[in-house]
């Protein structure tokens, strides 16, 4: 577990505090509050705060004076309708604030999602921990032969051992030099903001990340997808479990209409209609490019 006994104690103290409130609370989310869910070898995600629940989405959609709930069944139907028809603003009424610990190369992908509020641990002010992401052997994969932006089977034997050794040794050496450069025993000590530049992208950073549910779903749609890089996908998967407990109706609608859904182009839809009418459609007579045809076939075969 990546947390020290002192940090675990602080979290436990937070978990033990309660306050009476008139605000809506989501029981599923209360259970997650502050708990650190481990991800990768040193990372985690934990919920620091949240606002709203399934009923809050309906309340906003109906611009209601009361709780917004007509009946549980009505609420789920309304949420599914909103999701199906891209009426997205009611989902923005729910928010979540997370504490995330993640390798820098994962953070670079994550930060591209601009519709969130971020505050990152300052490596100008503080000293970074000696914690590096080292992939488990089954995730030490070869370059994919069919996809430039993907990976193939796991490396094996002597090559796997050598690569692992490089990753560990290079990380350790870079950190040793980092420590030595900022150390002040008998020297001025290089500024932390400069010394960090020789650290590799597998070192861990941390941030607080606040986002509304609509934009979180957009993030999860892209990053929990099978094509997303494994190292960010595992964070998205952990978050999917949290969101499923927080807003179960909205999450189910998201799974059905986004995560498990596909987009067909006009040409693909035309092909599908011709197939359903019994016509033998091939790539040559489909009007699709070879790559589009492959992707279309993959959708049909799934
Ligand atoms: C599989 C995959 C591969 C990728 N490969 C690359 C790559 O090779 N190189 C690379 O640079 N990036 C890459 N990305 C990142 C990608 O291009 C997006 O930057 C990232 O997914 C964030 O998506 P977003 O902009 O929709 O999200 P957000 O920034 O959260 O924005 C959400 C939505 O808000 C709107 N929006 C936000 N800001 C603006 C703005 N300034 N102007 C207009 N509209 C805005 C857009 O509609 C946007 O979709 C990749 C992403 C994925 C999932």
Automatic annotation (TrEMBL):
SUPFAM superfamilies: Thymidylate synthase-complementing protein Thy1
Keyword vocabulary terms for this entry: FAD, Flavoprotein, Methyltransferase, NADP, Nucleotide biosynthesis, Transferase
Any GO BP: methylation
Reaction(s) catalysed (UniProt annotation): dUMP + (6R)-5,10-methylene-5,6,7,8-tetrahydrofolate + NADPH + H(+) = dTMP + (6S)-5,6,7,8-tetrahydrofolate + NADP(+)
Residue positions binding dUMP: 109-112, 120-124, 196, 223
Pathway: Pyrimidine metabolism; dTTP biosynthesis
Family: Belongs to the thymidylate synthase ThyX family.
Amino acids binding FAD: 89, 112-114, 120, 212-214, 218
Protein name per its UniProtKB record: Flavin-dependent thymidylate synthase
Keyword Repeat: no
Keyword Heme belongs to the record: no
One Pfam family cited in the UniProt record for this chain: Thy1
Gene3D superfamilies assigned: 3.30.1360.170
PANTHER family per the UniProt record, alphabetical: FLAVIN-DEPENDENT THYMIDYLATE SYNTHASE (PTHR34934:SF1)
Cofactor field: FAD
Active site: 223
Cofactor-binding details, from the entry: Binds 4 FAD per tetramer. Each FAD binding site is formed by three monomers.
